[in-house]
Amino acid sequence: xxxxxxxxxxxxxxxxxxxxxxxEAHEAMELLLSGKGKGADMxxxxxxxxxxxxxxxxxxxxxSSWAGKLDAVVVIGIGGSYLGAKCALxxxxxxxxxxxxxxxxxxxxxGYSLSEDYMSDLLGYLKDKEFGVIVxxxxxTTTEPAIAFRILKKVMLERFGPEVTRERIVAVxxxxxxxxxxMCKKYGYRSLAVPNAVGGRYSVLSSVGLLPIAMAGCDIRxxxxxxxxxxxxxxNDKSDENPVIQYAAIRNAxxxxxxxxxxxxxxxxxxxxxxxxxxxxxxxxxxxxxxxxFPASLDLTTDLHSVGQYIQxxxxxxxxxxxxAGSREVEVKIPEAEDNLDGLDYLKGRTLEEIxxxxxxxTRLAHVSGGVPNIYLKIDKxxxxxxxxxxxxxxxxCAVSAYILGVNPFDQPGVDVYKNELYRLLGRPGYTx
Amino acid sequence: xxxxxxxxxxxxxxxxxxxxxxxEAHEAMELLLSGKGKGADMxxxxxxxxxxxxxxxxxxxxxSSWAGKLDAVVVIGIGGSYLGAKCALxxxxxxxxxxxxxxxxxxxxxGYSLSEDYMSDLLGYLKDKEFGVIVxxxxxTTTEPAIAFRILKKVMLERFGPEVTRERIVAVxxxxxxxxxxMCKKYGYRSLAVPNAVGGRYSVLSSVGLLPIAMAGCDIRxxxxxxxxxxxxxxNDKSDENPVIQYAAIRNAxxxxxxxxxxxxxxxxxxxxxxxxxxxxxxxxxxxxxxxxFPASLDLTTDLHSVGQYIQxxxxxxxxxxxxAGSREVEVKIPEAEDNLDGLDYLKGRTLEEIxxxxxxxTRLAHVSGGVPNIYLKIDKxxxxxxxxxxxxxxxxCAVSAYILGVNPFDQPGVDVYKNELYRLLGRPGYTx
Lengths: 433, 433
What we know:
The structure is a homodimer.
Chain A lengths: L2 E3 L1 H4 L4 H20 L18 H14 L5 E5 L6 H10 L13 E5 L5 H11 L4 E6 L6 H25 L1 E6 L4 H9 L2 E5 L12 H9 L4 H15 L8 H14 L4 E6 L5 H15 L7 E6 L8 H6 L4 E8 L26 H18 L4 E6 L4 H22 L7 H14 L7
Parallel strand pairs in A: 2-3, 2-4, 4-5, 5-6, 7-8, 7-9, 9-10
Antiparallel strand pairs in A: 1-10
Helix pairs in contact in A: 2-10, 2-14, 3-8, 4-8, 4-11, 9-14, 10-14, 11-14
């Protein structure tokens, strides 16, 4: 089980405030579980890990039927239909693979931008490849993925013919209605349903995340087990020590004290996209009614030589939430050198993991002394089980946190403003006024 | 020449404040050019584009001597010795290349983190490859790159022997002193000098950026020409219309009005690392004395389905600076479909570039209506010349801006706090108290 450490944050919070906030966190958790809070019809993610056995089986079956046969699979999706899988793949794939744990198929993403440069590079990459498509969209009409799907389908029809194209498309979409569901019916695409009560940013443990993650060769059973193990602890621990209660209370306490920015940091490039996933989760859940912490992310120690200067000495408006991971099996030690010109002999024989861990402690001490509260969470390594743990912990913490803040954790009214402006400018029928 | 558009920002600034700030921007520019401001001995980057002809020649020569012969080149560096090249490579490489414009050598990075997972993946990747190393460090003793260099050199010595290892290492380091310079002397590595009066984050147009960018197969002559063309305009335009004056004035005006976060946005994934480069530039130059805008970055339209919700509806503390690029030669149009189930027929025959550009306008309208000022800058496409333009424009704007803020744009005292804590924890000789 992951561990949450709070002492470098709570020292910035008066005991009395902390007590108040812990109380509010318990109430928020009860509100969430009672189904009486805002947006309560979108709570399907809470016990999702209990109900995905069939989905796991189906995802693994599709993955193994494509494995080895296809060179590449394009996963089409944006926002919550993209970031969970992207995050898990980045965490679990070899650093120097384009995507995926196996040589074939390589997993690439499409439909998460409107860039012509990106699309032309993607088409170039696919030119000489046998490829398939996983298209993920609840409605099937979100502009970016819908365009990417139309373009790629056209290419597939021309190159592979209708029968092979049909076999090489899997849709993850609404179980009953919507454009993509209609296409599945008409053309006979294989499909998985997006559960009704699960919003995009809470969907990584559903078919939305599981299919692309399975396709990449990851063990999605372990992944869901990690989430389930987290769920069993976090939903049942009624004490103040429950990490969800702790984390939700602390970040709201700091927000009330005037902190404006939460910086998610990692010390392992494999967790780069965890920062992106967290930014969506918190920004969309809390960033409304002119409220909410602004979520940012940093990769350390890399960015200590960049935004680190600001964290240390800039405006005192932020706190840090660090996700720390031990390294995997392989040990890398500092070797002997021909000489000691680099002055590193004092590190000889020590592992990179130890040095990285000291860097993490040093950074925390430096930042705390500079007035930046620091919450940190430790997992023993980056693998499927631990990623499942992290996803579940943050989803639950975010929902509880948003209830403390007093907003609906499950809507995103601000996203529609841009969508409507875009439709109007493009002259979409019905939006031309 | 790039174009800066300011009307969606200036409408948020009272005319009187704007006038005051424009005056201060002119003064700051004069202070910078007079050499009487803080940190004035680090202004070597201002006319750097005029003095790099020999460096360009040497970089191209080294690049062509390795081209085709090596499978991979590891560029070792962190902070300013990393981000400029990474940004340029990401912008100019094929999206689905690991790094570089040519099939060989692939350019990968090392020494920008202490992660054991990363290093073990890197060593795995290099296992069966003929590779070389470009090691970039002014001193040669910064922990992250020094460790990576020690590890990789050991591997090279064991696999290639001392003679070939010597031929496959190029150092970019201080011209006279320091650990890496000593190694060059002792082992006969080829080397380029880091100019004395150019700090890391202002160094992309020096040997620091030019060598890895040339190695990747990019045209560094065009790149420097872009910067030179920008320089000629920006240093000589004494009017209020000078984009540097405009941009520096506006961002400081917004900061004084209470804006706390500057969000750098792009609409092309190729510019993802421009955001990272900009964050270092501004955070290290301005984030001190408990002052400065917090720099964040977003990739759009991707992140409209993520942090976009916060931008639209969260706390009203940010403004946006958008970098917009037309697409390259290849046109991608929305094709005909078998049916119109996706409802996209109204876009049939239109290019992705047009739609992306409408999305950009729509986003701006939505955000401005939500109280988020928007500055935007347009380049016609992402290529060497335009990247040179952008780098120069932002370096100059940042220095002028920091002078308006009243801080030294060229130091980074906060970075040392972490370095010293790390040395102490690791027991480095002289730091143990």
